[in-house]
Amino acid sequence: MNDPHSPIPSPASRRGGEEAPLSCSTGATRAVGEGARPLGGRSARRSREDAADTSQTGQARDFEPSIAGTPAGIIDRPTNGKVVFTHPSERELARILDFYRVPWQYEPRSFVLRAKGERILEMFSPDFYLPELDQYFELTTLRQRLVTKKNRKLRLLRELYPGINVRLLYRKDYQELLAKYGFGPAELTWPEAEALRTETGAERILCSQAEIAATVRRLGEMLTRDYANRPPIMIGILKGVSFFLADLIRQVHLPVEIDFMAISALGNGGGSGSAVRIVKDLDLDIHGRHVLLVEDIVDTGMTLRYILGHLERRRPASLEVCTLLDKRARRLAPVEIRYVGVELADEFVVGYGLDYHQRFRNLPFLATFGPERYRPDPSARSA
User: Fold this and answer.
1) Among residues 11, 25, 51, 346, which one has the fewest Cβ atoms lying within 10 Å of its Cβ?
2) What is the pLDDT of residue 373?
3) What are residue 205's DSSP bridge partners?
4) Which of 263, 343, 243 is nearest to 304 (CA)?
5) Is the bond preceding 280 in cis, omega lying within 30 degrees of 0?
6) Considering 98, 299, 346, 377, which one is annotated as catalytic?
7) CA distance 10 to 78
């Protein structure tokens, strides 16, 4: 964006006077009548002035070096207070970066491009700085006039400060940028992912597709080790667990069996005062077998405690719990969970089997809503 600190050229500079920008002249001469006069504008005038001063005083005037291109030419800007964006495109990018958990800073530094000594004539403040990439970005549109102007500033910045990584960023470049943080097409281009971000006010991605895969792989390795020589029956509670359970059993390198239960929470939203009704029970006999109850998310623990009590009455050889997400901050009933993928704060999560009013189960990642959106569906259960 155009930097508010860039100086406005004076009338003299527009007429080619003393404050005119440096030209590309070299002091060459051309014939005019019988003599020749030097070309080069400001540089040539300065040479004549220095020569005049030398003839009058016997020595050249002291030269005051410019701060442009020096460490003093990199100026940190105040970062306290609320960020005020100068263009809607900046606000849009900031929201996208927040959603994908990309740390950013808005115009944290200004770079002096032209100066007379310490007097700044022109400087440039790139819109965004991404610390993890050590990269500055200046947003731009397809309007060629603006692109040309910004390219000139970026070219000068790179010449003066060669250690600074800076580039123009178009809207079409956002996916390429986010890919550097490990996000693939499923997180970036899937229509439901875009709908989640724009329609529901989702706050951020909690776990990317790659991070979920790594978590499931870690849990699978633990189960393979712990259940060696005693293959378990893995029981899932429908519906949301189907995604997690399907991926998990592929990471358990044992001859496992699976079964499902379905429940319905009665009363006031499945909370601490509600009853639980089993609408589908097990098909397999678990008496004397090693049982692993698999959950997508454990919340208050009330429903989970009821299910564990129901299973224990069938006298399995062992009974353990594995959950992808553990929202311990909302725990009301004491339940022991041996295998936990990710511990959550008090956040509402969708994706990878978890829904928001039956939507977004098919997202390959997990995303959170802000606190103002944490309104569970009254028909939903509390695991």
Assistant:
1) 11
2) 56
3) 367
4) 263
5) no
6) 299
7) 28
Q: Pull the structure tokens for residue 230.
A: 């005693």
Would you say the C-alpha torsion 72, 74, 80, 84 has a positive or negative sign?
positive
Distance CA 252, CA 205 (A): 27
The separation between the first and the last C-alpha atoms of the chain, rounded to the nearest angstrom, is 49
* Residues of the chain scoring pLDDT < 50: 1-61, 63, 268-273, 376-383
pLDDT score of 199: 66
**Cα dihedral sign, 345-296-210-371:** negative
Q: Are 323 and 347 in contact (CB under 8 A)?
A: no
Distance CA(379)–CA(193), nearest Å, equals 24
Total residues found in the chain within this entry: 383
**Domains in the chain: boundaries:** 71-181, 206-373
pLDDT score, position 45: 44
Is residue 128 classed as helix, strand or coil in its secondary structure? strand
In the numeric block, the tokens 């819109």 are attached to 127
Whether 299 is a known active-site residue: answer yes
* pLDDT for the residue numbered 190: 66
Question: How many whole angstroms separate alpha carbon 171 and alpha carbon 91?
Answer: 13
The third-level CATH classification (topology) of the domain covering 206-373 is Rossmann fold (3.40.50)
Rounded to whole angstroms, how far apart are CA atoms 137 and 125?
Answer: 10
CA–CA separation, 380 and 146 (whole Å)? 52
Can you state the angle between helices 209-226 and 241-249, rounded to 10 degrees?
60
pTM for this predicted structure: 0.61
Task: Spell out the residues 6+ positions from residue 143 whose beta carbon is closer than 8 angstroms to its own.
Answer: none
For residue 251, count other CB atoms closer than 10 A to its CB.
16
Residues with Cβ within 8 Å of residue 20, at least 6 apart in sequence: 12, 13, 14, 41, 42
Q: Domain 71-181 maps to which CATH number in 3.30.530, 3.40.960, 1.10.287, 3.30.110?
A: 3.40.960
Cα 288 → chain centroid: 48
Structure tokens at 274: 């509600």
Among residues 292, 339, 287, the alpha carbon closest in space to that of 317 is found at 287
